[in-house]
Amino acid sequence: MNNIGVIFDLDGVIVDTAKYHFLAWKNLADNLGFEFTETHNELLKGVSRVRSLEILLDIGNVKLSEEKKEDLLISKNKDYLGYITKMGPEEILPGASKLLNVLDDLGIAYVLGSASKNAPLILEQVNLFERFAGIVDGNSVSKAKPDPEVFLIGAEKLHLKPENCIVFEDAIAGVEAANIANMISIGIGDAKTLHEADFNFNNLTEIPEDFFTKVISEKILKNNESRLYKTK
Ligand code: B16
Ligand code: MG
Q: In angstroms, what is the span from residue 199 Cα to ligand 2's centroid?
């Protein structure tokens, strides 16, 4: 059943690294002397590291030289690495391992499509690296989500047309990127926030076992009129 393939975002879909990004960004904001809250952190989900720093500095109304910004990006990542190098398989989000098993059983290949430059390390930490047919991460792209580049490279790795790819995403920018790429977008998380997705689930445990067979048999592909068979 390999006429479709799957592209997974990492943070917020396979693992929750947002909590570690938060701790590292908060530490940086504390050192700069302004408050950075969990609500602020929502703005950084799915956003590149460089863009995250720009947003954070805007929140604190802080202006810095490019050189200083470079230093901060390095120190934030060092701090973040301290957390992720302690991660283990127990941090795989509920439903993710089972979903990968379902895909393996169906012979549906999957790749990673993440904005994180640390994605390979994180997948190694949680023992999932070997299972992905390919990794597209922040090192492989020049344009950040909502630009579709990350997912279009993912489709190439799957040797599939974009419309035959299903994207799992937790961020608005990622859902937008999947839609622009003409892929099937699945929003994981709050359905109101991710209302632009073709399908919505609160988390991966909610994906019905027959989801992929239905996508194929009902031809819910974007190049097909029957895309109207949405679950919502
Ligand atoms: P890094 P995803 C994204 O991962 C995170 O959601 C986002 O908060 C982070 O800024 C970005 O990766 C870059 O991460 O600093 O490790 O390169 O959701 O695209 O898997
Ligand atoms: Mg994400």
A: 16
Number of residues that make up the chain? 232
Select from 68, 84, 100 the last residue of a domain: 84
Q: What is the pLDDT of residue 215?
A: 81
Q: Is the CB of 114 under 6 A from ligand 1?
A: yes
Q: What is the CATH number of the domain that holds 22?
A: 1.10.150.240
Question: Quick one: which of 165, 147, 122 has its CA closest to 5?
Answer: 165
pLDDT value of residue 217: 75
Q: Atom of ligand 1 at shortest distance to CA of 174? A: 19
| Residue 144 domain boundaries | 5-16+90-231
Q: Give 207's DSSP letter.
A: S
Residues 126 and 52 in one domain: no
- Across the strands, what pairs with 185? 167
pLDDT digits (tens, 9 = 90+) for 93-107: 999 999 999 999 999
Q: Give the pLDDT confidence of 162-208 residue by residue, as tens digits.
A: 999 999 999 999 999 999 999 999 999 999 999 999 999 999 999 99
Gap between the Cα atoms of 105 and 163, Å rounded:
22
How many whole angstroms from 52 Cα to the centroid of ligand 1?
A: 9
Domain CATH number, residue 200:
3.40.50.1000
Same domain, 138 and 165: yes
pLDDT-derived band at 3 (thresholds 50, 70, 90) equals confident
